[in-house]
Amino acid sequence: xxxxxEILQAAAPLLLSWFRANQRDLPWRKNRTFYTSLVAEIMLxxxxxxxxxxxxxxxxxxxxxxxxxALASEDEVMKAWERLGYYSRARNLQKAAKTLFEEGTxxxxxxxxxxAGVGDYTAGxxxxxxxGLKEPAVDGNVLRVLTRLLADGSVIDDGxxxxxxQLLRAVYPDSTADFCEGLMELGAIVCVPNGAPFCEKxxxxxxxxxxxxxxxxxxxxxxxxxxxxxxxLDVFVLMCDGRYALKKRGAxxxxxxxxxxxxxxxxxxxxxxxxxxxxxxxTAKHIFTHVEWRMTGYxxxxxxxxxxxxxxxxxxxxxxxxxxxxxxxFTEWVK
Length: 335
Hints:
Layout: H1 4-22, H2 34-44, H3 49-62, H4 66-71, H5 74-81, H6 88-103, H7 109-113, H8 120-131, H9 140-150, H10 158-171, H11 176-189, H12 209-212, E1 229-240, E2 243-248, E3 258-259, E4 262-265, E5 277-287, E6 291-301, E7 310-312, H13 314-319, H14 328-331
Parallel strand pairs: 1-6
Antiparallel strand pairs: 1-2, 1-4, 2-3, 2-7, 5-6
Helix pairs in contact: 1-10, 1-11, 2-3, 2-6, 2-8, 8-11, 9-11
């Protein structure tokens, strides 16, 4: 019976051939530098590829090198990041760009890992893809692929990640970028989550222990997730003479972004409304990693502006103010 290392050694060249013939046409795979790879990897953290493609191109048009990003204002960066969510990533990306601008590109995994916003997985991806280092990048996609290949029923935890990192490092080929991206690609389009994998398209079908046993969907084995906390919010879109009330969020979730006035509600029931004419009402929800917002929004025409808020036109909101996608259902009222 083959050892795990022997299976991976046999799997590596098959993956490289498959990836070179089947890789998707993605913008960050063209004219790649360390900086552009950093932008892509930070954007792709917890975000779908399709959601990133257009924003990646627009972001690099505005900030083509680390210099432009390092010298930009926070509001400029937040606006360019709008609708990508997890806005702390944008702040960390700007901090990392400042490090690149001031100190140059790191040349080791440790140096890459020290950049703001870069964890073990992202450090491995950047090291493999942009620096040619044999440093694995092990995330959920890669863990799914490898646990199926090896029929490993261990509950996924940090120890399992370390085990697969060591196994991959032992078999890493010289084509580090293609191997790293090949693992990601296989997990994205063939050995997919939330359903049966497309084993008939997989270059590893003849090696995969889970597939050969007909047990692909048994793997990976994960610990149960904790239930999300639910919070109720009343959101007020206040309109006066073609301008809308905005305020900047303080510390905590979505810090530093612009939002419509809102308040925590005890339930999803009725709210005491600001004085004015109620024009529309609707409900929406937004799911964060650990919290779910259930919101009731009110479009209200008020008679006069107040100094409590910034009052902006629809055009100004479109071009200057970064409003997180959590409030997207109510941004539709801004015209």
